[in-house]
Amino acid sequence: MATRGPRPADVVLTETERAELEGWARRRKTAAGLAVRSRIILAAADGGSNTEVAQRLGLNRGTVRRWRDRFVEDRCDGLLDEPRPGRPRTIDDDKIKDLITSTLETAPKNATHWSTRSMAEHLDISQSTVSRVWRAFGLAPHKQHSWKLSKDPLFTEKVRDVVGLYMNPPERALVLCVDEKTQIQALDRTQPIFPMLPTTPQRARHDYVRNGTSSLYAALDVASGKMIGSLHSRHRAKEFIAFLRKIDAEVPDDLDVHLVMDNASTHKTPAVKRWLLAHPRFVIHFTPTSSSWMNLVERWFAELTTKKLQRSTHTSVQQLNKDIRAWIETWNDNPRPYVWVKTADQILDSIAHYCARIKDSGH
């Protein structure tokens, strides 16, 4: 029989406290933690147990209990971050609030983002103080990450299909992630590369000589991490069919072949469709448009680039191809599969939450 926990503390707000909490909760660009804490207290004041408030806000029950108790003890001050040990601050709370608000909600007249120097001049504080506060609150105005949401009308269905293959592959089948890394350039430096020395990194000239290009077709075995690769001088449906033939020859005849790949035009030509119809053991699973992150072979391409291609030199396409083939052979001697851990529901919930943040961003 379940036992009841202690009765949660009653939360009764004054008009001033409610106004301040609603202001913190409404501010679209305020510190996320303070906004969440404010919503917890406002919900608790409307009534309900910690479990009910947690379910209403989609939070952990322990989080609700902690901030509810802290508010009852210290009121609004209890929701603010506690001071950290160390030297006493030389800047008061109001100045920190102005600094954070200005960083999140404004921009300088002559630039797209603040620097420590421009912010220090704007608020008449030291540059080191701006730097310390930004580090403490995880603010980095100079950084920008790119993102793109898929507009594929079948996005949800494709996510469930591909993730289902990764996490629960069919029996008597091989799941291969397929893609092409096109226009790989055979680059040679115009001057010798200086080797790394103590206190001095390797140095190379920024310019280079182009010696032609090659295209790599790759199929990553999701279960084992092994790679099937094929190099071609061009990137057409003809070369893709040749690669499919190679896969067909290397995969045992008693196994079905499930291919995860993108929506490139070379994957959907009439010639490719005819070949697939003639080989019914091949089953195609397309990733959503603008969703290359769902194809695990892209992770392998990143390793090839950073560990081999980025800092290598090649005087010819033949030399480039030889190097890539050797790298694939070395990889297959000790293959390392990439393990997919997020379920389709977790991915879709995360994207829905992100879309909600975009909608509430004020842009």
Describe this protein with a few key phrases:
13 helices, 363 residues, 5-stranded mixed beta sheet, alpha/beta, single chain, 44% helix, Nucleotidyltransferase, domain 5
Q: Any guess at the CATH architecture of the largest domain? A: 2-Layer Sandwich
How much strand? 5-15%
- Annotated CATH homologous superfamily of the largest domain: Ribonuclease H-like superfamily/Ribonuclease H
How would you write the strand order of the largest sheet?
Answer: 3-2-1-4-5
**What gyration radius follows from the Cα positions, in whole Å?**
28 Å
Helix content: 40-55%
SSE series: HHHHHHHHEEEHEHEHHH
**Distance between the amino and carboxyl termini:** 51 Å
Query: What is the residue-mean pLDDT, rounded to a whole number?
Result: 86
- Per DSSP, the total helix count is 13
What count of domains describes the coordinates? 3
